[in-house]
Amino acid sequence: MPQSSANSRLIHYIVSILLAIVALALILVLAFPIGFYGMAMYITPNLPSISEMKSTNLEMPLQIYSKDDKLIGQYGNRMSLPVTYDDIPKNFINAFLAAEDSSFYEHSGISIKGLGRAITEIITEDSGQTGGSTITMQVAKNYFLSPERTFSRKLTELYLARSIEDELSKEEILTLYVNKIYMGEGAYGIRAAAKKYYSKSLDKLTIAEMATLAGLPKAPSQNNPVSNPEEALERRNWILGRMLELGYITQAQHDTAVKEPIGVHLYKEQLDVNMPYLAEMTRRTLVDRYGEEVVNAGWRVKLTVDSEDQKAADTAIKKGLIGYDRRHGWRGVEAHGEPLSKFTTYSNMVPAKVVEVSGRSFKAELADGEVVTVPWSGMSWAKEYLDANRIRRYPNSASDLVKKDDIVRLIANENKTAWRLTQIPKVQGSLVALDPETGAVEALVGGFDFRYSKFNRATQGWRQPGSTIKPLNYAAALEKGYRPDSMISDGPLRIGDWQPKNSDNRFYGDMTIRRGLILSRNLVSIRLLQAVGTSDARQLLDQFGLDKDKLPTTLSLALGAGQATPLQMATAYSAFANGGHRIQPYFIDQIYDYDNKLLYLANPQRACALCFNNDLQKLNAKLKQDYEKQAEADAKLHQLALKALAEDPKLLQVADSTQSETVDSADDGAADDGAEDDGAEDEADNAKAKPKNSKASLQAAIEAIRYDAGPQSDRLKPVPITYQVADQAPRILKPNVAYEMAGMLRDVIQRGTGTRAKALGRTDVGGKTGTTNEMKDAWFAGFHPTQVSIVWVGFDQPSTLGRGEYGGVAALPIWVDYMRTALKSVPYQWVSVNNKAKSETAKQEVINLSDDNDNTTAGATGSGSDARITNQKVTDGVVRPPRASLIERQPPKPVEPPKPVNSNNNSNSNSSTNADTSSTRAAPKPAPKPAEKPKAEPKPTENKAAPAND
C-alpha cells in the first residue's frame, strides 16, 4: 500500500511538471508574437520610412584644379558610388551569397540557423567565417542601427528585417546591401570598393577579386588585402570554396581563382602642384556656403590661378623671406637632444641632428638615418643675430654655431649632393595678384609655408598700408581738379600738437604733385589730404575697396594709418591699371559635378565689358573648335591603345607603374611641397603635356583601359564652354585721372623710390613702395595693364624689421621675382587714356571676395534662393557659388555664409568690405601652430604714429 501511494505521488509529480512545461511553452508561444507586436509599436514611430532607403547618395572627394588643369587640392575621404541591380555582375552576387547568406532567396529576412550562430557569437564573443545575420538583417543594421553586438539591438534588427522583406523585393534588398555596406579604406559599397582596391569598374573584376571584396563586410580591417593580405587570402579562398560547393563556379574557375595573387592596385590620388593656401580658401568658401557635405560631394572646382604663376609667387615669397632672414643673422639651433620625429620639414628645410662637429664642418643625421656633411661654405653666412638692428661677427668654426645633439635645419641643392645650414624665418610675407580687367586672382600666397602656419595673410592680414595708400589719396585730389603738375608745399607743418616730418627730416619747399609722389614726401601727402578733406577721401578709399570703418578720420590717413589687407590693396590698384574701374576679386571660375556636368561658370563684371562682348562670338567659336580638336585627339589615342592591345594582349599584364605619394585627405588636403605628378597617366590626361602620339601617352592610354576606375578616370575632363554677355564694372575714377595716376606711378619706378623694379627691364610697369612707422610693415604695390600684384613683409606680432628694411628693400625684390615670370611672354603695353568702357562714376562701393548678399534675385538661368547641396543633389537647377557682386554697406559684423548669385546679376547699391573668403572683419584668430615650435600669430594693430615715407 505504501508502495502504491508513493508511485501515485511520483506520477502526479511528473504529470504536474509536464503540464507546467506545456503551459510555459504555450505562454512563450503567445508571448513572442505579442512581444514582437509590442516591439513594433515601440520602434516604428522612431524609424524613417523604408521607402527612403531606396536612394543612396554619391560620395567622392572634392577636387580643386588650377586654371591649367593641375590638381592642387583634394578634401574628403569617403567613397560611395551607387549601382543598380543590373550593374552587379552575377559572380559578384554569388560571392556575397556564398560569404554572407546562401539561403537569401529562401528565407523571409530571418534565418533560424544564422540566428543561432549570432546568439552563440554574442555569448562567446567568438567569430567564424560565416556571420550570424542575413543580408536583410545587415541592411537593417547598416541603414538604421548601430554596430553594437547586444540582444536588444539584435531583436530590433529582426523586426526591421521582417519589415524590409514585406516592402522590398529581394533584388532591391540586395542592391541596398551592396551600395551601403562598408568595405574598408573609406569605401562604401561594391563600386567604391572595386575602385579603391583595384582601380577597376565592376565588370573588369576577376572572380578572385570579387571574392576578396565579398570577404570584407564581415571584418573590413581584419580581412583587408592592403593591411592583412594573409587574412584576406584565407577569407577569399574560403569564399571561393563555398562558391564551388554551392555550384556558382566550376572547378576550373575555382582553381584559376585560387592561384591568383591577392595583390591590389590601390586607388591613390596625388597632387600635380601644391597650392595649399588657394586650396584651403576654396574649401572654406564652399563649406561656408553649402555645409560640410560639400567635401564629399564629388565636385571638381576649377580656379582662376595658373599653376606656373602660383609657383613663381610661392618661390618669390620664400626667396625673399629667406633672404631677409639671412641678412639678420643666425638665431641659434632649433632644439637640443630632442628626437627628430618631433620635427616637420617645411619648404624643403629638413630637420637634422648634429652627430659630429669638426673644425669647419659638421655631420648631421636626417630623419631617414642618412648622415650628411655640411661644409664651411654652407654655414659661413651665419653671423650672430643680436636683434633686428644688430648682428655680430661671422663664425670662425662650426663649433661657434652647433654642438652634438643640436637640432638644426638643412637644405640641399637640386641633386642633394651638397647641404647647407638654414633656419625657418620668423618673418612672414604674402603676395596676391589680380587680373585688373576682371578681378580674377592670378596668384595668392598667404605665408612662408602653409604647414608651418595656415593663417592666410593675403586675405586675413589687416596691416597698416603705409605709403602705398598715398596714390589713392592723390587720386582723390585729381578727382577734385588737381593735376600732376599742380604745385604743393613740402615745407614744415604743425597741426595742433602734431608736427609731422619726412623720413629724412628735410624739406624741399614747393614741388609738383608728381614729384611729391615720386619721392613719397609725407608733408605733400598731408597737405593734399587737407585740401581734399578726410571725409571725401575716406569715401573714395571705401570705393577703391578698403574698409572705411578701418580708416582713421584724421590726417594720419595721408600716411597710411588704419588697416587694409593685401587683397584690398590689389583691388584698389586695379583701378589705375584698368582705366578707373572697380573690379571685384574672385577665384572660383568653374564647378563641375562628379559626372563632369558644368554646374557653375563665373561671369564677372569687366572693366571693358564692351570689348569682351564684341569678341564674344569669336571666343565661343574658338573654344568649341579647341574642344572638338581635343576630343578628336583623345579618341584617336584610345583607338591606338585598343589596337595595340589587340595586337599584343600581354600589354594588359604589364607590371603596375610606380605610384607617387598620395594625397592626404585630412584637413590640409595637400601633399608635400614640390610633389608633382610626372607619371604616364597624367601625361595622357593632360592634353597640353605632350603630343598624344608619344610613347608615354600611349602607355597611359593602355593603363587607363586596364585600370578604368583609377584616379585618372575621376579627373576633370574638358567640356565645351560657352560664355555669356558680361556686365560692365562700375567706374570709380575718371579716365584721365586713372591715366595720370598710372603715369605718376610709372615714374615712381623710373625715377623714385621703386627704381629697383627697373631690374625687370620694362617701362610699362608702375608701383609704389610702402613702409610703416619703425619699419614694422614693408609693402610694394605694383601693376602692369594685365596684372596687379601686391607684396607685404612683416612679423605676425608687429615689430621692427630692422634699419633699412624699407618696402623697396624687403618687399620690392619679391615683386620683381614674381613679375619676371608673370610678364615673361607679355608684350609691351600701357594704360590708355581713351577708355572704351562707357560707364559713369559709381556711388561709394567697396570689394567683397566672398558674397554675403542675402537679397539677390533670380536670373534667367538660375535661382537666387538659398539652395543647399547634399552629396551631388543640387536643388533649383544651376548652382552658383560666390561671385562678384555689390551689396549694401553694413557696419562690421560676422559674414553670413555666401549665397548663390546669378552670374549676370549687376547691383549698384553700396557695399561693405570683407577680404577674407569666410572670416569676419574682426581681429583674425590665431592660426594653428606646429607642435614642435609654438609661435605667435598676427593681431591687427592701430599705430597712430605717422609711418615713414618710402
Question: Can you give keywords for this protein?
Answer:
five-stranded mixed beta sheet, alpha+beta, six-stranded antiparallel beta sheet, 11% strand
Short recap of the structure:
Helix 8 (207-214) crosses helix 9 (229-245) and helix 9 runs antiparallel to helix 10 (251-259). The strands form seven sheets. Strands 6, 7, 8, 9, 12 and 13 form a six-stranded antiparallel beta sheet that branches. Strands 2-1-5-18-19 form a five-stranded mixed beta sheet, with helices on one face. A five-stranded antiparallel beta sheet has the order 15-14-22-21-20, with helices on both faces.
Describe the fold and architecture:
With 950 residues, the chain is an alpha+beta fold. The chain has 25 helices and 24 strands. Strands 6, 7, 8, 9, 12 and 13 form a six-stranded antiparallel beta sheet that branches. Strand 23 and strand 24 (873-874) form a beta hairpin. Helix 14 runs antiparallel to helix 23 (735-751) and helix 20 (616-647) crosses helix 22. It is elongated, with a radius of gyration of 35 Å. Residues 654-693, 842-848 and 850-946 have low confidence and may be disordered.
